[in-house]
């Protein structure tokens, strides 16, 4: 029996869970699930519940929303009594958690794909509109800074902070107005927006303000959960979520079946596996739709 702790069973993590479930079934293992609802203080109790239910190995995606959560609520993961694999989370270099197996999307690569695509269409440096409330959002922000450094570019303005429209309507409107101002002033003609839901709502609100996608603004969404369903299908960076779940489960099963070590009695090395996102080109950048990049 394998246990899986996830912060959510919807949106991004639904595909991760599906990939894990499929891999567990192929291995003849049962997968049981606990959800923390993005409450990092609940992670340990939920994990203990998985162990009490009989889990012999664990797939763990902690509910961290920032580095402070990792520092406050992460140390216990390094002391688990069974093999464990981190899902879509990265430990601080040199920390006890850094010695765990992990499988995660390389979001810096995904951001670089998006920036290069927009540059290739003739746009100046694209700006970033992003949330700051999850490890993925923070990784996208860090990836954006890294991409600009790699390409020798300067951002047209600081990152525009996005928030969910249903939670903070005023904050959402401020983000839209900031993006609108940059576009109509000619400072930028392209943007990367994390995440899909924000991107769709931003496109709708910009249209009400007279800014059209892709005619006035080329836009790429990040996550590719619902980007294809927008009125103008959105080009999107697609992290390999299902494959993250699959590879992590296969690695965990391998840990449980490998025995004491190799022929020389040496324990198998821990693995940090980074999977590369793809760019799915649709209509929101003005380029002819394609399959993937």
From TrEMBL:
SUPFAM superfamilies: Periplasmic binding protein-like I
Residue intervals of the Transcriptional regulator LacI/GalR-like sensor domain: 115-285
Top-level taxon in the UniProt lineage: Bacteria
A Pfam family recorded for this sequence: Peripla_BP_3
GO molecular function, one term: DNA-binding transcription factor activity
Keywords from the named record: DNA-binding, Transcription, Transcription regulation
Protein name per the record: GntR protein
Native species: Streptomyces laurentii
């Amino acid at each position: 029996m394998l246990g899986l702790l996830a912060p959510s069973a919807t949106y991004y993590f639904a595909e991760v869970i599906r990939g894990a479930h499929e891999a567990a079934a192929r291995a003849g293992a049962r997968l049981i699930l606990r959800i923390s609802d993005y409450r990092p203080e609940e992670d340990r109790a939920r994990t203990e519940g998985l162990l009490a239910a009989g889990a012999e190995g664990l797939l763990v995606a902690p509910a961290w929303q920032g580095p402070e959560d990792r520092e406050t609520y992460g140390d216990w993961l390094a002391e688990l009594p069974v093999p464990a694999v981190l899902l879509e989370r990265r430990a601080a270099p040199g920390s006890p958690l850094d010695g765990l197996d992990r499988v995660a999307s390389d979001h810096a690569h995904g951001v670089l794909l998006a920036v290069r695509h927009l540059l290739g269409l003739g746009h100046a440096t694209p700006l970033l509109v992003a949330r700051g409330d999850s490890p993925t959002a923070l990784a996208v922000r860090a990836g954006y800074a890294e991409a600009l450094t790699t390409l020798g570019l300067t951002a047209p303005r600081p990152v525009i902070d996005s928030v969910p429209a249903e939670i903070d309507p005023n904050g959402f409107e401020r983000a839209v107005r900031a993006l609108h101002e940059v576009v109509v002033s000619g400072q930028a003609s392209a943007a990367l927006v994390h995440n899909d839901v924000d991107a769709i709502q931003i496109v709708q609100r910009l249209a009400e303000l007279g800014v059209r996608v892709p005619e006035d603004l080329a836009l790429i969404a990040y996550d590719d959960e619902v980007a294809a369903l927008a009125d103008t299908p959105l080009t999107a960076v697609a992290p390999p979520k299902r494959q993250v779940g699959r590879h992590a489960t296969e690695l965990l099963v391998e840990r449980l079946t490998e025995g004491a070590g190799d022929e020389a009695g040496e324990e198998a090395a821990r693995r940090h596996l980074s999977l590369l996102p793809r760019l799915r080109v649709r209509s929101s950048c003005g380029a002819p739709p394609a399959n993937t990049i």
